[in-house]
Fold this protein.
Amino acid sequence: MKQQTLAIHTAPERIDPHGALSMPVYHSAAFEFDSAADMEGAFTGRLHKASYSRVVNPTVAYLEDKVTSLTGATATYAFNSGMAAIHNALVTFAESGKNIVTSKHLFGNTFSLIGGTLRRFGVKAKFIDLTDISKVREAVDADTCCIYAEIITNPQMEVADFRALADIAHQHNIPLIADTTIIPFTRFSAKDLGIDIEVVSSTKYISGGATSLGGLMINYGRFDFVDKRVRMELLYNLGAIMTPHAAYMQTLGLETLEARYAMQSANALAIAKALREVEGIESVNYVGLEDNPYYELSRSQFGDTAGAMLTFDLPTREDCWKLIDNVKLIRRATNLFDNRTLIIHPASTIFGNFPASVRRSMQVNDTTIRLSVGLEHPEDIINDIKQAIQ
Ligand SMILES: *Cc1c(COP(=O)(O)O)cnc(C)c1O
């Protein structure tokens, strides 16, 4: 079956006794067993049955199974935020004395998780230019535990060659971990690109319009110890599993993902094209524009859409703030892929607590505005930006 169909019809592990069509929300901390032997089975990982909702919950497991069937992965683990998924994925491989090869062009909190929090536990970071494959080859050494990359960086909108990154990782028997939040996993095959662990902030497209926080770690099975470490160690010890209620909403979100994404990415392309013609806008950065430097590489890896996020530059920071203050329809908020279009000035918000020198090295510019395109008619969004610039 096609993914669009699987997103709706993936069968639950057990038929609901009442015949519920959507997976019920199992709001129960604990689950009962028939025997001591079954209890032992569940606690040692031999028996796949819910025991305690910090480790397994049927509603959460249903979302995980759907994602596994949609991606062709070997397992999916659902966490209570994108950051929790990223943290769990990294500590599956990292340990004191090891290093992570990555770029400075990362989601702000991922940057400070790797460069700050994990560093306090002895994990080193090598921030390099991942679009320069010779630099990656030089950086990976015997102590490297993974290569970590985002598929389209935000807000720089940069794309690396994932097959080349995967080749280097696999020569060293380490994983390529990729944050694929910006383009849904239904649109391309992370597995075919050589990505071993995919992490996704399901808060974004999958939640179905900013309904809830969530994160997914999708395991493509190259490393045998991963499933055991996550299920038998990290879920127990870090306690970051998704809540049943969020899993319910995100399962519904997954069912409508294709329809929403098709419209949102088409809207983003239409808006990117139109904004280039607006007087006062210096430049528009969207990987889906044919003259974008990453257009071909992005298409060859992630298919014919480029997501629903774009950035544009105005002459000064003051101009950016004025525009943001003057939009009427577009909402001033962080987050991506809400049903409504959102606007933000990344340098003064998401990256506002970073020293100016760090922002410069991350290429987060004072003159850049980020737009997350929603489901409104694109003309209304374009007109709102035009009137705000006026
Ligand atoms: C939002 C986001 C995250 C963090 O996800 P949360 O669900 O907010 O914790 C990580 N990476 C990318 C690319 C994101 O857009």
Remarks:
- The longest helix spans residues 257-275.
- Residues 80 and 242 are 4 Å apart (CA to CA).
